[in-house]
Amino acid sequence: MNCTKCKTKAVIDLPRHNAAFCQPCFTTYVHDQTAYAIKHARMFGPDDRILVAVSGGKDSLALWDILLKLGYKADALYVDLGIPGYSAKSREKVERFAEAIARPKGATLHTHTVQEEEGAGIKELSNLVHRPTCATCGTIKRYQFNKTAVDQDYDVMATGHNLDDEAARLLGNVLHWQEEYLDKQSPTLPASVEGFAKKVKPLYRLSERELAAYAVLNKIDYIVEECPMAKGSKMLLYKEALNRLETDSPGTKHRFYFGFLDKQERGATAPQSMADKDRASLHPCAACGQPTTGETCSYCKMMARASAAKS
Ligand code: SF4
Ligand code: ZN
User: What pLDDT score does 311 carry?
Assistant: First the structure.
């Protein structure tokens, strides 16, 4: 198998593109796909300051690496969830990457430690508020990433969601006809009101397999294990189903997700019109000032419940 571009020995084949690449051409392909995504979905420009949400996994570290190599001003935020046997390891991967790759390029790593800032690790916190661990985690991460982006004047917040993540999420939203989520499922979500950062997913054109290959070929040391709390999640089930379809018919995920984006671009429920709806229903949280539809935001409500349960 030879590289489609330069005809030397290929290291990876991409059946959905009917192509194969050697290492340098594959790295160029990943950079080009990301650069195209940034431009096509109007994510950010060369002078914007970007905050990357990093977890220690392949996608988020690959994203930070790619943005720095493309010449963007990209800092990162890591949220330490305090999960025994997992968080310490993922934090170490992030800190090592920051030290070796990001800092020499002038980038900064911000860290938020849930145990210190919210007063308990994610599992204890979810027990206190009687909510599933992943729901508690989602509320904290959404809140803290947005807060850091807004407080520290970043122009945009970037996450490492890839094609597999987005196709699985779309499948879940379609299976349950979650119309509101479908309207908001876009690679770029504008900052609808003051206090909400713009959110982008520059890796939406690349598959999980491609990003794992990019990380390995570019010597990015990432945490291979999934978060232990993800076990049995619906997302993993949807990914498995899509992988079976993909094996049988390469390009299924791509057609499914890109067909949706195509319809969304031409339709009336584009993210911009969602931004108008948001503007009408959001106002500052009475406790912290972040935008919310209720009197207080879900983070402040959750933290109030946690401190009531402790006392
Ligand atoms: Fe958080 Fe759940 Fe994801 Fe783990 S699996 S990082 S607890 S949302
Ligand atoms: Zn609040």
Answer: 80
